[in-house]
């Protein structure tokens, strides 16, 4: 069993190390897909560069922000020209607002207790599977982080949100030792 790498701090300062740890895990075998959370494109572009020559076609998970979708169209075109796919989704907390069902929000907040990057890594696998970009049961390497950059990588079995009980995290490759500043469970 592999050791977990812990980072002293959460955040983008860990991005390069996370991606290299993920590459080493990918090379060890047994990974069907690699998904990367990237709001502005820096993490996705660095991941694409590091994974060059491996045959991996990254699934890049962007966000829907007030000012539109991210990463930018230019970044998306650059990544797609290299054979990677860019998709968008809404995080589990926002889903709870739309549906009025707070179970997704509670799951999200529970994952956040481990770290924000862990929460995001789990969410992007669940959401991408729900949208049909990943197949249930696939072994997925997920890279995510706190705010910007990457500080967490996991290996999980993909499952859609509707089959949440089938979702399983098999490995935590790396994460911050302490999570970022705690948030309120349900904002006032």
Question: Number of domains in the coordinates?
Answer: 1
CATH architecture: 3-Layer(aba) Sandwich
The CATH superfamily is known as Pyruvate kinase, C-terminal domain
User: In DSSP terms, counting alpha (H) and pi (I) runs of 4 or more, how many helices?
Assistant: 6
The amount of helix comes to 25-40%
Structural class: alpha/beta
Strand content: 15-25%
CATH fold-type name: Pyruvate Kinase, Chain: A, domain 1
Oligomer: single chain
What report would you give on this structure?
The chain has 188 residues and is of the alpha/beta class. The chain contains six helices and eight strands, in the order E-H-E-H-E-E-H-E-H-H-H-E-E-E. The chain has helices at residues 15-27, 42-50, 73-81, 92-99, 103-112, 116-130, and strands at residues 5-7, 33-37, 59-65, 68-70, 85-89, 139-144, 152-157, 168-176. Strands 1, 2, 3, 4, 5, 6, 7 and 8 form an eight-stranded mixed sheet that branches. Strand 2 (33-37), helix 2 (42-50) and strand 3 form a beta-alpha-beta unit. The termini are far apart.
């Amino acid at each position: 069993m592999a050791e977990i790498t812990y980072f002293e701090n959460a955040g983008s300062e860990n991005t390069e190390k996370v991606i290299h740890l993920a590459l080493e895990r990918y090379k060890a075998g047994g990974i069907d897909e690699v998904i990367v959370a990237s709001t502005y494109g820096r993490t996705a572009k660095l991941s694409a560069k590091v994974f060059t020559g491996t045959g991996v076609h990254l699934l890049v998970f962007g966000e829907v922000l007030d000012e539109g979708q991210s990463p930018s169209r230019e970044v998306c075109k650059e990544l797609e020209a290299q054979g990677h796919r860019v998709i968008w989704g809404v995080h589990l907390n926002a889903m709870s607002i739309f549906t009025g069902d707070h179970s997704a929000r509670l799951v999200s907040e529970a994952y956040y207790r481990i770290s924000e990057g862990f929460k995001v890594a789990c969410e992007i696998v669940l959401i991408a599977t729900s949208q049909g970009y990943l197949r249930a049961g696939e072994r997925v390497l997920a890279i995510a982080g706190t705010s910007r950059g990457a500080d967490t990588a996991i290996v999980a079995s993909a499952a859609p949100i509707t089959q949440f009980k089938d979702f399983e995290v098999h490995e935590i490759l790396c994460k911050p030792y302490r999570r970022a500043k705690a948030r309120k469970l349900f904002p006032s």
